[in-house]
Amino acid sequence: MKRARPAFSRVGFLRFGVAWVLFPGLQAAASQPENSVAVLTVAQVVVEHLEPATVCWRTIVSDRERARTQYESQPWVVRHWQPILGAVLGGAVAYQFTGNYGANSQKWVYPTLLGGMAVGAAVGPGMVAGAYAGGMLAQHFWPTKLPVTIALSMLGGVLGDGLMKFLFPEDPLLADTQPGQYLPDQQFYVETRCVASTRVSYTETPYRATYRYKGEARSALFRYYPGDRIELDTAGRPLKEIQGEQPENRIRVSSR
Fold first, then answer.
1. How is 81-124 classified by DSSP, letter by letter?
2. What does R_g of the chain's alpha carbons equal in angstroms?
């Protein structure tokens, strides 16, 4: 009795396996359902909205950092009022002394004025006012003795500068520190700091995909990205399309 031959041969099975490996399109075609079509285009509109916002956080600062921040937050005129006042007083005193020498000294008015302002800004209003007061006192009682005038002017400047520092002492917390310097009795505070930022929001519309069904170009809306192919029902409409009215736009929010 002859043995029955199988319905397929080893050579044919080998050829089919090689074609299956070398041509991945055969695998894709075999795995795709019959009711699916290729997606032609996919579009989505994303609108970006920008609006100002404030970002705040809590942090720990030392008393020196707090004093420095409060000092730098003041207007420039308030922070440098002593050099400004000293420059005004120094210029006024220099102008008065130049005017006492008659018409021949008028060409030295502006150089003397600028010099007096520079000196006044450097030494401060206390020393300028004290030196002027001491010089006027010496001129009143000893008008012909120049050494006495110079001595009293210097003494008045020292006294005036000391009085100014006594009435308006410098904040020790604003003094510059050196590396490795020991700072006793430090205090720390918890502060809330804020910075300006930009709040960004995105308004997204559903995905609109186009496909071709029986030679007719159609489109449908999807809540999520449809992929390369979509499955259709018997009427040629996608199974996962958004049914009914178009849903509200989705909003995503982030910060910059």
1. HHHHHHHHHHHHHHHHHHHTT-GGGGGGHHHHHHHHHHHHHHH-
2. 45
Residue reference for tokens 């002859």: 2
The arithmetic mean of pLDDT across residues 16-34, rounded, is 50
pLDDT single digits (tens) 167-176: 888 888 888 8
Angstrom distance (rounded) from CA 76 to CA 3? 110
Closest CA to 82 of 129, 125, 127, 130: 125
| Element holding 191 (H helix, E strand) | strand 188-204
pLDDT surpassing 50 at residue 7: no
Q: What is the pTM of this model?
A: 0.51
Of 97, 160, 109, 106, nearest to 133 (Cα)?
Answer: 160
Structure confidence at residue 100 as a pLDDT band (50, 70, 90): low
- For residues 112 and 248, the model is more confident at 112
**CA distance linking residue 46 with residue 249, whole number of Å:** 10
Burial of 134 (0-12, 13-18, 19+ CB in 10 A): buried
DSSP run (H or E) holding 214:
none
